[in-house]
Amino acid sequence: MKLFAMLEKSPMTLLALAGVFLILAFLLRTRKVKLTTHQATCCGLLLALTLVLSLLPLYRMPYGGTITLGGMLPIMLIAFAYGPEVGIMAGFVYGLLNLLLNPYILQPVQVLFDYPLPFMALGLCGFFPRHPYLGMAVGVAVRYLFHFISGVAFFASYAPAGMSPAVYSLVANGTYLIPDLVICLVLYRLLPMERFRQMM
C-alpha cells in the first residue's frame, strides 16, 4: 500500500518504472535473436542510412523533431525483413546513437521516452509483414504515443498560454511525425521494397 501511495504522489517515478519495464520487456524478447553475418551487415548498413537521413533533415522543428526523407524507413525495412525482434533491437541501437549525436536531455526519464523507446516502437511494424502500410502506421503511432507522453510530462512549460500540455504535445509531435510517416509510405510505394526485402 505504501508503494502505491508513493507512486500516486510521484508520477515521474511511475513513468520511470514504466519506461524501464518496457525497455527490459523489449530487450528480453530479443535475447534469443541470432543474426547471420549477412543479416548483421544489412542491419548495419540500414542503421547507417538512418543516421545519414536524420542528419540531413528536410525540416527541423524549433523545439525538437525533424521531418526527414524517409528516415524511419530503414528501421522498418529491418523489421519487415527479419521480424519485430530484430527491428526492436535495431531501433534500440539507433535510439542510443541518436542520443549521442543529438542529445536533448532534461532528465533521465525523459531520455527513455524520447530516444530508445520511440525508435524501438518502429520495430513493431515487423508484426505486419503482409500488411506493410498498416505495420508502418502502427509503429509510428506507438512512437507518437511515447513522444506524446514525454511532451506532456517534461515539455509542458513550452505550451503557449491557455493551451493544455496534452494538446500542445499532440500538435507539436504530430507536425513532424505525420509528414514523416506520409513520406515513408510514399517511398515504400515508389521504391522496389519487396525486392530489397528478398535481397536481405
Automatic annotation (TrEMBL):
> Can the keyword Membrane be found in this entry's annotation?
yes
GO cellular component, alphabetical, reads: plasma membrane
InterPro entries the record matches: Thia_Transptr_ThiT
Indicate the segments annotated as coiled coil, or none if absent.
Answer: none
One annotated GO molecular function: thiamine transmembrane transporter activity
Keyword Cell inner membrane included in the entry's annotation: no
Q: Which keywords does this chain's UniProt record carry?
A: Membrane, Transmembrane, Transmembrane helix
Entry protein name: Thiamine transporter
Q: Which Pfam families match?
A: Thia_YuaJ (PF09515)
Q: Where are the transmembrane segments?
A: 12-28, 40-59, 89-106, 141-161, 167-191
